[in-house]
Amino acid sequence: MVSPAPAIQTAALRKEYGKTTALQELTLTVPRGEVFGFLGPNGAGKTTAVKLLTGLARPTSGQGWLLGKPLGDREARRRMGFLPELFRFHEWLSAQEVLQLHGELAGLSSDLRRKRVPEVLELVGLSDRGDDRVGTFSKGMQQRLGLAQALINRPELVILDEPTSALDPIGRRDVRVLIQQLKSDGVTVFLNSHLLSEIELVCDRVAIVDHGRVVQEGALQELLTLSHELEIRAGGITAAVLDGMPACWKVREHAGAHLLLGVPRAEDAAEVTRFLVAHGVDLLELSPRRTNLEDLFLESITSDNGNDPLPSPLLRRGNS
Amino acid sequence: MAILTFTRLSLREASRSRVLALAFGLTLLYIGLVGWGSKAIADHSPNALAAVSSAAGLELVAFFFGSFMLALLAVFVAGHSLRQEAENGLLLAILAKPVRRLDVLAGRWLGSALILAAWVALFTAGVVLAVGLAVGFYPPAPAQAGVLMLLESLVVLSLRLLFGSFLGTLASGIVPLLAWGLARIAGLVEIVGKSLGISSMVTAGIATSLVIPTDVLSRGASYFLLPDLVGLAGQDLAASAARGNPFASVAPIAGPMVVWSVLYVLVMVAAAARIFSRRDV
Questions:
Q1: Which of A203, A208, B63, B186 sits CB 3.0–4.6 Å from A37 for a disulfide?
Q2: What residues of chain B lie within 8 A of the CB of A75, using their CB?
Q3: Residues A269 and A123 in one domain
Q4: Are residues A153 and A202 in the same domain?
Q5: Does one domain contain both A63 and A209?
Q6: Quick check: is A250 in a domain?
Q7: Count of domains for chain A
């Protein structure tokens, strides 16, 4: 049996708007059935990438495939669902009418639409507002409706661009549950979000983009364990001790009795303990620190640029 | 078919639009005023010939201003420009669906054209009946007049969609109206040139008609509304009444001009579709 093409595959996708390069070189693969997080600071090219994937804009160069079809292909778009970041619906239509319209455009028969519209309304928690005009909806309700239209055609791939930006904590949890449900149904979800905690909770894989290119990509759990950090409190950490450490141990922070050490493997903790004791250090405490997505994110976009691109000193990490 | 989905959407939007309901209501009022005016003319005319020619004149003027109302309606009925709707997010989820952009544009064109056709039918039938019932004068071919009037509005509509594929709503609405006004002035220049025998003015008018064929269609429509003045009053009077008259044309529109106008509409819609299809949103 031939395995199906990846949900998304791009090769050196580039987009220029006049003299501005919005996306430098996007190369990534999103396997089927996964929840894929697409992260990056503002202006990194995330929304441009999404527009290229959905056929709303054409790449300046490079190639891409959606569900095995070239970008912009109508057949692929028939099997895809998309919630844009900035969107509006015809305000004079009711929620049901909006979904009828989008179902019709997605190519659903009228019988199927009659069945599917109440289903997706239920799915996003708008069942009791189906007859209300969209113009009367709050931003959060419109976002729920946006999700509903993205799911109307039972897509194989859903591209969600900031799906929870207007939602309250309850709405965010609902979307998280919805994404997990989609995943269990075998749907691939491409999630573009600023909310790192959200991505960390639902995504299997992530790609971090900065300045229009991917700077990190991989399975989330692997990326998070790529770098292990040990938080150490000890007396007698001298420069000589630090200099004597193996090169693969990185001193991240050092101030007095406090030492933050990056090591390649979690198991290295034992060796670090032995090393410190052997070098006459009075070890008071040694505990592994789990890297979270925020650390990874900040580290990725910092290291990519050589110098610190983050405008706020609050966001800078202490550096040794 | 996706085109018809967008056509229905345009029609549904129109049916829920208060402004459009107001426009149709005011049109009925306008028709009522024309009828009332015709009756007043008939009541104060010394004889039937005077009554008919005055009422026919009023009818021509009514159509002359009606064509302006129609041009405004053609600009308005197409709604926001497609570029604007793409930018404000209204079209994003729609264009990502498996639809061609041509479908979006052609569907909107068709929906708008149907509304314009409804207006032209109401206006033409209303004015003709209002004058007819008051004075007993019925123009020789009101249906042909209506068709040319509709074609005139489709030229404006197509220009509106063409400019709307790359300009905002306001700009893409103003440009076709300015073009319509320019064609009207050029038409007057042509009429004056003709009556004074100045060939360069006539040439300028004809050239403008080729670039913006609205006024020539409007004058073509007026031909079908003229009473048979020759039969009523004799050749000389008819010729002198028609000479230099900005409201009416004594010669029918040339066949090739009608063909050109239809082609013009098709070319403008095709160009709009091409621009809109290539546009990044």
A1: A203
A2: 98
A3: no
A4: yes
A5: yes
A6: yes
A7: 2
Is A312 part of a structural domain of the chain? no
Residues in chain A: 320
| Same structural domain, A45 and A191 | yes
DSSP-derived letter for residue A117 is H
Q: List, for residues A23-48, the tens digit of each pLDDT value.
A: 999 999 999 999 999 998 888 889 99
**pLDDT, tens digit (0-9, with 9 covering 90-100), for A123-179:** 999 999 999 999 999 989 999 999 999 999 999 999 999 998 888 999 999 999 999
Is A88 in Cβ contact with B89 (below 8 Å)?
yes
Q: Could you say which residues from 102 to 141 on chain A have a Cβ atom under 8 Å away from some Cβ of chain B?
A: 102, 104-107
Is the complex ipTM more than 0.90?
no
Do A266 and A125 reside in the same domain of the chain? no
Range of the domain at A123: 8-223
Q: Across the interface, do B96 and A88 touch by the CB < 8 Å criterion?
A: no
Q: Tell me: do A39 and A161 sit in the same domain.
A: yes
Virtual torsion, Cα A67, A1, A33, A151, nearest 10 deg? 50
Residue A58 domain-assigned (yes or no) = yes
- Note the pLDDT tens digit of each residue in A201-225: 899 999 999 888 888 888 887 777 6
Q: Do A88 and B98 touch (CB under 8 A)?
A: no
Q: How far apart are CA A106 and CA A102, in angstroms?
A: 6
